[in-house]
Each structure stands twice: as C-alpha cells, then as structure tokens.
Amino acid sequence: MDRVKLATVWLGGCSGCHMSFLDMDEWLIDLAPRIDLVYSPLADVKEYPDGVDVALVEGAVANEENRHMAKVIRRRSKVVVSFGDCAVSGNVTAMRNPLGKSLEVLRTSYLLESAGTNPRLPDDREIVPVLLDKVLPLHAVIPVDHHLPGCPPPAARIRAIVEDLLAARTPIRTADQIRFG
Amino acid sequence: MAVVTLTIDDKPVSARAGDSVLAAAREAGIRIPTLCHLDGVSEAAACRLCLVQVEGRGRLQAACVTETAEGMIVRTQTDTLREYRRMILELLFTEGNHVCAVCVANGNCELQSLAAELGMDHVRYPYLNPARPVDVTHKQYAIDHNRCILCTRCVRTCDEIEGAHTWDVAGRGTLSHIVADMGQPWGESVTCTSCGKCVQACPTGALFRQGSTVAEMTKDREKLGDLVTARRDKKWTV
C-alpha cells in the first residue's frame, strides 16, 4: 500500500496540539512506516506540497498569512482536519475579538494595557503578517472535512482519528472524541 | 391520586396527573437533555433543549412545561429534534464567549458536556464575540457574563430557595444580562446574603467562587433539589 501523505500545519495556535501529537509516543513508530510526513513544523519543509492526503491544521485563522496558508492547504489536500479547539472554534486565539478590530487590539496590547518602556505598535508589514480584524475558525475560511476538538486533543483522540483516516473510515464522533476544552 | 398513561418513545409510561412530560420521561428512565431545568425550582422553558414532538400538535413542545395527558404520544429522539438541539447549542456558543480551555468550569460544565453528548463537534454559525464584563466586586464569588447562557437558574434559585431575589434579567435580545438588585455591582447588593446557592445552580462557569482557576470550579447542583425536598418533607437527615 502506498504511504499516506500526511501534513500538519501550525496556524494561530500555541503548538500545544502538536505537542499532544508527539504525546502519541511509541505509536509514532508504528505510524512512521505508514505515512510520508510531507509538511509539518516538526519537519524542515519550506513549501506546502501538492497531493497531500490528510492535513491536520492546528490554530485559528488570525492573520493574512494564516488565511493565505489555509487556502493553499485546501487546494492541495484531499482531507482537511481542524486540529484542536483553536482551529475548530477560535478558542484562546479568538479571545481578542471582543476587544475590537485589529488596530484596537494592537493599541490595547502594545500601548495601553501592557505597554512597557518603549510602547510602539508592531507596524512593519514586510515582516509581521497583518492581523485580521476578527480571528476565525478554520471552517469559516475554507471547507473542512473533520473537526477534532480539544485543547489540546488528548493523544488517544488524535490517534483515533488518524487511524480512521488512514483506513479511509469515517471518524467516530462519540462524546469522548469531540469534547471541547 | 389521578394517573395518566401516555407513550414516550414507544414506551408506555404512567405519570401523576399534572406532571410534566419531562418529569414523566425521567421517571421512566428516558433522558431528555436540559439546561435551564433545575430540580427544586420552577421551570423557565428558556433553553428549549427539552423540545419534544407530541402527536397531534403542530409545534414542538418544551417537555418541562408540557403537562402529561391521557393517551399522549411523545417522541424525544428524532432527527428533527436532534438537529434543533444541536442548533440551539451552537447558537448558545456563538452568543457568548465560551472558551472551555480557560474556563473555571472546564470539565464541570453542563453546556460543555451537552455539546459533546449531542454531537456538536463545531459551530456552523458566526461567533458574535460580544464584549461582556466580569464582576468581581463580591468578596467570595464572581460573575463572568461571557459564560452566561441566561438560563435564569440563579434568578430562580435566589428568589425561590433563598428568598432574597438579588438576581434578575435586564436588557433585551442579545443585550440581555443578569443583574444584581437594580443593576449595581454584586458586591454592593443589599439583598445578597452571600449564601452561594446561585453559584451551585449555575450550569456553566458564569458564577464561580473567587480564586478558582481553570477547571477548579466544581458544582454540587443536586444539593439545591435536596434542600427543597428536605424543607418540604421536613426530612433533614439522609
């Protein structure tokens, strides 16, 4: 059987979901011969490749780069999974939304609430991706095939969905597999 | 005592005349999901999660305020009901700021548990992300309006069990919110007895003990119903 081309992506999140992925521990050794990890923050790949079979996408869509990346992922992947609460709901990343649009958020964060000795807005658009006015869950930007809630999703839950997807089964969606938080 | 016989999910069920469909179903071991219902206080029929189909009635009925009747045929689990219940939960999640991961009630929240139970693996509607305040003026407790679903359990518990009626609902539509007394900070309320029953009644992390951090706020909601039963039946020992 051909190896499944797996990608994992880190958008607006804390990487906790990827840490939980690593928490699958020795099962990663069983997984390794069944997949090609074609793109991941855990691997040194610069360009998201074509023909990805399964993409686990961590994090919310918080800036222009995230949004661009989401669209690239959708175009080049067969199955896209919202990986963790930030991708599924916005979660902690979206906690800035009630503060207002991006400029108000930046003002609050860099000039008012937590301004240090050198208050300055990070305004170098060549370096820092522009924030979206509203942090969005992944499925608000691209069609998503499966949702994997959890902050982070426990390793067993990640393993369950990866096993289902490798076997081309519809993932089970019982309460213990979809709990937020 | 008059008894009525009805059918719930193809199961013959007998109930005391005057019982709600919810009470009859529970007694028969049929689970209907609820959020605003709380044993020991009156029904508000606010959350609509207990909607059921009653044969011969065109509209869906809230089981908590629908009286049982002789020969009634009730369905509590249909595709339509499952879809509506999930939709209700999704709308509750969009209307407030329910960030389970950093909530004091994470793991002890009825909203969170029901979402998992009823198959809500994501929310299909846009999040409103309203700007809502947190009131920490009370010396023991706090209210985080971000987590409030306006079930009014706290309002009813304070009024009917404690008899203080500190809590009420102000505003309309999405701007509705819980207020202490005439809308002053909770810590300045002259009617609040600091009994903490509202904190126990709250299904989410909206009302909590100060100093609780993520997932620390456990609640003992059954105590309130037990208290009401004990008062009514004058039975104070277990």
What do you see in this structure?
- The complex is a heterodimer of chains A (181) and B (238).
- Chain A is of the alpha/beta class.
- Chain A has a single domain, classed as 3-Layer(aba) Sandwich (Rossmann fold), CATH 3.40.50.
- Chain A has seven helices and seven strands, in the order βααβββαβααββαα.
- Chain A has helices at residues 16-22, 27-31, 64-76, 85-89, 102-112, 155-166, 175-178; strands at residues 4-10, 35-39, 52-58, 61-63, 77-83, 131-136, 146-148.
- The longest helix of chain A is centred in the middle third of the chain and has 13 residues, at 64-76.
- The mean pLDDT of chain A is 95.
- Chain B has 238 residues and is an alpha+beta fold.
- Chain B has two domains: 3-77, Ubiquitin-like (UB roll) (Roll); 83-233, Alpha-Beta Plaits (2-Layer Sandwich), CATH 3.30.70.
- Chain B has six helices and ten strands.
- A five-stranded mixed β-sheet of chain B has the order 2-1-5-3-4, with helices on one face. Chain B has a three-stranded antiparallel β-sheet with strand order 6-7-10. Chain B has a two-stranded antiparallel ribbon with strand order 8-9.
- The longest helix of chain B is centred in the middle third of the chain and has 17 residues, at 79-95.
- The A-B interface holds A 82, 85, 88-92, 94-95, 97-100, 134, 137, 139-140, 144, 147-149, 151, 173, 175-176, 178-181 and B 93, 97, 99-103, 106-107, 109, 112-113, 115-117, 119-124, 126-127, 129-132, 146, 215.
